[in-house]
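Task: sequence in, structure out. Protein: Methyltransferase type 11 domain-containing protein.
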Amino acid sequence: MAATTKTLENVKANILSAHKSVTLAEKVDFYNSWAENYDQDVAVLEYRAPSLAANCVSSHFSGDCGAAVVLDVACGTGLVAKQMKKLGFGHFVGIDGSEAMLDSARESGLYQDLKQCMLGEGPLPVQCGSFDVVVIVGALSDGQVPVGVVRELCKCTKPGGYVCMTTRRNQDNVEYKEALERELKQMEADGLWTCVEVSEVEDWERAVSEHEDGYIPGVVYLYKRLQL
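Result:
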């Protein structure tokens, strides 16, 4: 079926099929196969996370947006960079586990560098403390990226720089969100960063699970790395 004629039910079926993916290789295969239609599908879901995250960063960033270097983790096809570009940011480095997603991101022309990396399998392939802004949108959820990755995000950020993260607040993601927030608060207690904003959003995206209807809620977190 052509992407332009996909309905919500078509998109739901595709995403639910990914839940059957157990191994890392299966998950990567799913995203590789999804890359071509990803942007159209998330538009059907009315997926707002990229614009919400970009606006959150922009509202607090007081430096020169055009000179800022942004690390876009789990960048996918480049939806977050596209939104941040509209707000004046212009220098992006992207990381993703899917080569097909990276190909789409490369075609966008938004990124100065793109790197393939499986999140949670070791340090990120970038220099520590070198980014003004680090963003991860959509990947922090049950069955996707382990919570511990947030420590790597912090390490990549310059002292005084920002880390923006999102997750879902729906029923399927309750335990993951609780674990994530424990880690975020522990890192604050450890003196690594300070919380700038936590923004809860009700209409995050259209529900896809079989036991939810309408829209599911989500949350945007913004932290500022403290001076070393």
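The mean pLDDT is 94.
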